[in-house]
Design a protein that fits this description.
alpha+beta; PH-domain like; 2 domains; 6 strands; 47% helix
Length: 165
């Protein structure tokens, strides 16, 4: 923070490497369901069988490619950092989104661990601010680091003057 303003800068931290497996599992599930539906329909609807099975094959191949490559790409571009002044998050490649939550604007700090995140020992830290854009999320953190980060953010925001509105 310089002269009362927070400057946009690249965050320093990468996500936990296990996030690649978590993202791949999510994408695989999103691929398997439509492929299975198309394949089952193709097995039972004889007149449309060639088209349904072709569609199942196309979705399977595209889904497999996305599942292999997209998480690696996401891992390279997702960054986060917490300083005494703000929480910084950068996501996206073609459409990059940079989010900065000044400590004085933070209202709540939460950690979330869905079933898949628990399986990968990961967690998401959600920093809620007074922004109309919504909460700042740091997904794909080691669950212990996420708990420590939530505690650290709580301590910093408690000591930061301002009313978070």
């Amino acid at each position: 923070m310089t002269g009362g303003t927070v400057r946009l800068r690249p965050p320093n931290n990468t996500l936990d490497r296990r996030v690649i497996g978590w993202w791949r599992t999510q994408l695989l599930l999103l691929t398997v369901v439509p492929v299975a539906v198309l394949a089952v329909l193709g097995a039972f609807v004889a007149p449309a069988r060639p088209w349904l099975l072709l569609a199942a094959g196309v979705v399977a191949v595209l889904g497999a490619a996305v599942t292999v490559f997209l998480p690696l790409w996401w891992f390279r571009v997702h960054r986060w950092e917490v300083t005494q002044d703000a929480v910084y998050v950068r996501t996206g490649f073609f459409w990059q989104e940079w989010r900065i939550a000044p400590m004085s604007r933070i209202q709540t700090v939460d950690t979330v661990r869905g079933p898949l995140e628990q399986a990968f020992r990961l967690a998401t830290v959600i920093v809620t601010t007074a922004s109309s854009k919504g909460a700042v999320k740091i997904e794909g953190l080691d669950h212990e680091l996420a708990a420590e980060l939530a505690e650290r953010l709580t301590l910093i925001t408690r000591a930061t003057p301002g009313d978070a509105t």
